[in-house]
């Protein structure tokens, strides 16, 4: 260490002296060179014509400098040795520093690796905790899954039972929002989905509670007959709010399909639509053809057993009353459908009458006259104003004009559609019209009042009336004359003012009977295009 320090000090002294001496020599040389023009700087050779100044060699220059300060070249060699020693020491120091840095870098890297390992351990711990949690959740789910499945099946079973057996009124209360109600789809019929019907209207259907289809007075009316009819109506037709299509078709099983061959045990059933020529047809069948009828005439002779009654004019009837549901039920209890006593049954209660035929042998065969619903409604109104002999007559009609009637609760509301679908209260919708069309097409032979004679001939040809002797007051030879007389002088014909088509009153009635109008157009299609082939 001492030698190194001594060499270092000597070196510093020599270097300082050399630097000072060389600086002075250089300064003098530069001054001498500038004094002469064209002389380049030291160390640059010019052409032979210029003065050449060559710097002394480094070795001689160094020797002179050393001599001037009392040193020689040997000292310089010593200096070189000291310099070598110093350089070697410097190398050792550098190596030591490098080793130290390398060691520190190793420690830093080890520390960094340790930190990474610690972080990974922490993450592993977190994942282990999460895995443990997931495992616990999976175990819980696997334990609860059978319980959940069983609970779900229980809920579904309860829902099904509630749907099938729950009271209809509770269903209506639970579905008060009409927008929600319209999204329900309890059944699909002929491509028409959404069968739930809101029953938010309190107005009861006013038409068709009797053989003339008169509307009902309100419940506040003091008329005892009106109250009796209201009670009777409510008893037999409780509004459900749902079109139960399967049940409806089951109820109609008592009617044969029109396209099926006629059987001797089948009983013709005339579906009497008010003010469509039904009374005239009844007179024709009972008097001209001599058929034994079952309608409302026999109600004055109702007993606990069936029998045939004969009036003074020779017309014959079975002692039943088919003009109301109670009378139909009583006739059913007496076994009227299978009795074979009547040649034709006449009623407005299409669905109730089907229950009379409850076996596979005796069935009903429906036929009906159809009329434009607006013209029929106008005719009915003017008839009810004067028909004091009808048991449904009320002074409320006598004080009305046609416009008041059209906007009142007493005017009819899609009478045919309601009776064919058994929707006797509440609203009717497109689905009811679709159903009514199918029922009419499959179960009823249609006649048109505006084409009365052709319709009578079609009924006669279908049922074979002209080929049978019913034993009535008119002989078979005189039937044609009798039919012509009845046709020219129809019963219950009531002259009345005409209503302007597309006028205000017309449109009022049309608004309340739009489904019946569509059903009437369908009946015309059946009459002219479909059922003519069946009869022929």
Automatic annotation (TrEMBL):
The keyword Transport does not apply. The chain crosses the membrane at residues 147-166. Keywords: Membrane, Transmembrane, Transmembrane helix. Residues 100-112 have a biased composition (Basic and acidic residues). It holds the Pfam family Sulfotransfer_2. SUPFAM superfamilies: P-loop containing nucleoside triphosphate hydrolases. GO terms for molecular function: sulfotransferase activity. GO terms for cellular component: membrane. It comes from the Eukaryota. Residues 22-49, 100-123 are annotated as: Disordered. This is Sulfotransferase domain-containing protein.
């Amino acid at each position: 260490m001492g030698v190194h320090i001594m060499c270092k000090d000597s070196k510093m002294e020599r270097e300082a002296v050399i630097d000072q001496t060389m600086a002075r020599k250089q300064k003098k040389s530069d001054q001498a060179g500038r004094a002469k023009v064209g002389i380049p700087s030291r160390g640059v050779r010019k052409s032979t014509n210029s003065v050449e100044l060559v710097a002394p060699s480094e070795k001689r220059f160094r020797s002179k400098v050393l001599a001037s300060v009392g040193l020689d070249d040997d000292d310089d060699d010593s200096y070189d040795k000291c310099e070598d020693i110093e350089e070697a020491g410097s190398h050792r120091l550098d190596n030591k520093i490098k080793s130290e840095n390398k060691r520190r870098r190793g420690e830093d890297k080890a520390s960094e690796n340790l930190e990474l390992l610690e972080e990974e351990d922490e993450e592993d711990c977190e994942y282990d905790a999460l895995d443990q949690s997931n495992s616990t959740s999976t175990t819980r789910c696997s334990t609860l899954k059978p319980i959940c499945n069983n609970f779900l099946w229980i809920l579904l079973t309860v829902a099904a039972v509630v749907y099938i057996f729950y009271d209809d009124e509770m269903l209506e209360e639970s579905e008060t929002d009409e927008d929600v109600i319209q999204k329900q789809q309890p059944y699909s019929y002929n491509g028409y989905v959404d069968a739930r019907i809101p029953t938010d209207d309190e107005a009861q259907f006013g038409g068709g509670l009797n053989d003339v289809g008169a509307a009902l007075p309100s419940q506040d009316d003091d008329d005892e007959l009106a109250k009796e009819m209201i009670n009777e109506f409510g008893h037999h037709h409780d509004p459900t709010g749902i079109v139960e299509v399967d049940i409806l078709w089951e109820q109609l099983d008592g009617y044969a399909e029109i396209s099926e061959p006629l059987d001797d045990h089948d009983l013709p059933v005339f579906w009497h639509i008010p003010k469509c020529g039904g009374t005239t047809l009844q007179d024709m069948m009972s008097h001209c053809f001599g058929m034994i009828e079952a309608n409302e005439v026999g109600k004055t002779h109702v007993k606990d057993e069936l029998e045939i009654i004969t009036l003074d004019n020779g017309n014959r009837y079975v002692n039943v009353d088919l003009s109301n549901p109670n009378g139909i039920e009583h006739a059913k209890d007496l076994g009227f459908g299978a009795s074979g006593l009547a040649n034709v049954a006449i009623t407005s209660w299409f669905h109730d009458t089907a229950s009379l035929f409850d076996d596979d042998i005796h069935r009903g065969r429906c036929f009906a006259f159809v009329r434009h619903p607006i013209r029929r409604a106008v005719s009915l109104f003017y008839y009810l104003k004067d028909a004091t002999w009808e048991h449904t007559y009320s002074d409320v009609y006598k004080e009305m004009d046609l416009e008041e009637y059209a906007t009142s609760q007493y005017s009819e509301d899609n009478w045919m559609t309601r009776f064919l679908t058994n929707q006797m209260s509440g609203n009717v919708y497109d689905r009811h019209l679709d159903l009514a069309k199918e029922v009419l097409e499959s179960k009823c032979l249609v006649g048109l009042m505006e084409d009365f004679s052709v319709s009578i001939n079609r009924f006669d040809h279908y049922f074979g009336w002209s080929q049978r002797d019913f034993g009535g007051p008119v002989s078979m030879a005189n039937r044609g004359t009798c039919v012509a007389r009845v046709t020219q002088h129809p019963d219950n014909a009531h002259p009345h003012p005409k209503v302007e088509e597309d006028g205000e009153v017309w449109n009022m009635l049309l608004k309340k009977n739009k489904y019946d109008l569509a059903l009437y157009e369908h009946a015309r299609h059946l009459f002219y295009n479909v059922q003519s082939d069946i009869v022929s």
